[in-house]
Design a protein that fits this description.
CATH superfamily of the largest domain: tm_1862 like domain
Number of helices: 13
CATH architecture of the largest domain: Alpha-Beta Horseshoe
Number of strands: 16
Structural class: alpha/beta
Strand order of the largest sheet: 12-13-14-16-15
Helix content: 25-40%
Radius of gyration: 23 Å
Order of helices and strands: HEHEEHEEHEHEHHEHEHHEHEHEEEEEH
Shape: globular
CATH topology of the largest domain: pyruvate-formate lyase- activating enzyme
Bound molecules: iron/sulfur cluster
Distance between the termini: 51 Å
């Protein structure tokens, strides 16, 4: 992809590589890809290339004269981006009636397959004031915010939240208090990436009160022995009990999760248990991924690797099972009334659809972008719905 972009870029455009790959393999990228102008991990330049000088020399960038300058892969203490990180970047202008808001960076958990804590370090939460300030700065045109972090439900646990603030917010978990504050400022607050152990009743109620009864539970698997090898919490019955509580509090709650297939040690029994679970829990959405061995993770030391072909076969089985469930759940919404935020002409989302992840609700193009409208679902196909304005709303618009 990097090379394709290098080929496609117009004159004068610089090519910057950033993110996890740049953080982990920045030095190698710098060495092997002279096409790249800048390699940036999480805030600390790994390399800086001066294409201008390269061009001035009339080279293609593949010679020794174009070696990068200023290589600085990491902060002095070995942590990633300690003084200037993604949390402090100014946000680009918002072009939709919804916006991501990052509330923390890093993660204190140590899941066996995950390399993120190596790159991003321990969790660092933004202050409540900073998050609230950013949400307020988005303006009235933004009707939905999507809170993201590696482990959203743990927001604030690394901060010294003053006791009076904590009490004033009445928060058993800091994130609950933050949600309450944000809900006063924006109609919809959506959370992504919830570690399942965080979902006690107070948390469920706090999420439902955000106006978006959407639960993105990061389960990864349901077999207890396998979750143990993944160094993760929970098991099938615990997850079923949690979902039951969610549905008692909010019968129309939408649930999403993601699962890894082919983690070392995954047996046929583990896989069957996952398929049974999918049938039983009836999630609205689920993503499936085959295990990918990441350098430096605990999982690399595990035996009983699962052959790729078998992992792909398991993925196919899970995807087919879930696709049928998703389609049936979507079809069951036909003739239901839902409230959608119109993201762009002809496309809206109810609380059941996260932006850029799930299906959408197709609506008439006349519905104004940025409005929250009540519509009646008239059709469904796969993950998508089609809907028409309910008559009294249409009449109100005409007036
Ligand atoms: S999978 Fe998520 S919770 Fe686990 S270590 Fe990685 S970022 Fe943290």
């Amino acid at each position: 992809m990097i090379l394709e972009l290098a080929e496609a870029r117009p004159e004068g455009v610089r090519l910057v590589v950033t993110g996890c790959l740049a953080e982990r393999d920045g030095a190698e990228l710098t060495r092997c890809m002279p096409e790249v102008d800048l390699v940036v991990g999480f805030g600390v330049p790994v390399s800086l290339r001066r294409r201008a000088s390269r061009r001035a020399r009339g080279t293609t960038g593949h010679d020794a004269a174009t070696k990068p300058r200023g290589i600085q892969a990491r902060a002095a203490d070995g942590t990633a981006g300690a003084s200037f990180d993604l949390l402090n970047l100014p946000r680009p202008p918002v072009k939709a009636p919804w916006a991501y808001v990052k509330v923390a960076e890093g993660c204190d958990r140590r899941c066996g397959f995950c390399a993120i804590p190596q790159f991003r370090g321990r969790q660092r939460s933004r202050s409540a004031e900073s998050v609230i300030g950013e949400v307020e700065s988005l303006g009235d045109d933004v009707r939905e915010i999507v809170l993201v972090a590696q482990d959203v439900s743990s927001w604030g646990r690394d901060r010294d939240v003053p006791e009076d603030v904590r009490r004033a917010r009445g928060a058993p978990r800091p994130i609950v208090g933050l949600l309450r504050e944000l809900r006063e400022r924006v109609e919809r607050v959506r959370l992504l990436y919830l570690y399942p152990s965080s979902l006690d009743e107070a948390m469920v109620e706090a999420i439902v009160a955000t106006g978006v009864a959407y639960f993105d539970l990061s389960l990864q698997h349901v077999s207890r022995p396998l979750l143990g090898r993944m160094r993760r919490w929970g098991e099938a019955q615990t997850f079923l009990d949690q979902v039951s509580v969610i549905r008692q509090v909010a019968p129309d709650a939408a649930l999403r999760s993601s699962f890894i297939l082919g983690y070392p040690g995954e047996t046929e029994d583990d896989h069957d248990r996952l398929l049974e679970f999918l049938e039983e829990v009836q999630l609205d959405w689920a993503g499936f991924f085959t295990f990918s061995e990441e350098v430096g993770t605990y999982a690399t030391r595990l035996s009983e690797k699962v052959p790729t072909a078998l992992a792909l076969e398991r993925l196919r089985e899970c995807s087919e099972t879930q696709d049928a469930i998703t389609a049936a759940k979507r079809a069951a919404l036909v003739r239901e009334r839902v409230s959608v935020l119109v993201d762009e002409p002809g496309t809206g989302r109810s609380h059941r659809e996260a932006p850029e992840i799930d299906g959408v609700v197709h609506v008439p193009r006349v519905l104004p972008v940025g409005r929250i409208e009540d519509v009646m679902v008239t059709g469904a196909a796969g993950p998508d719905l089609w809907a028409e304005p309910v008559p009294e709303c249409a009449a109100g618009r005409a007036r």
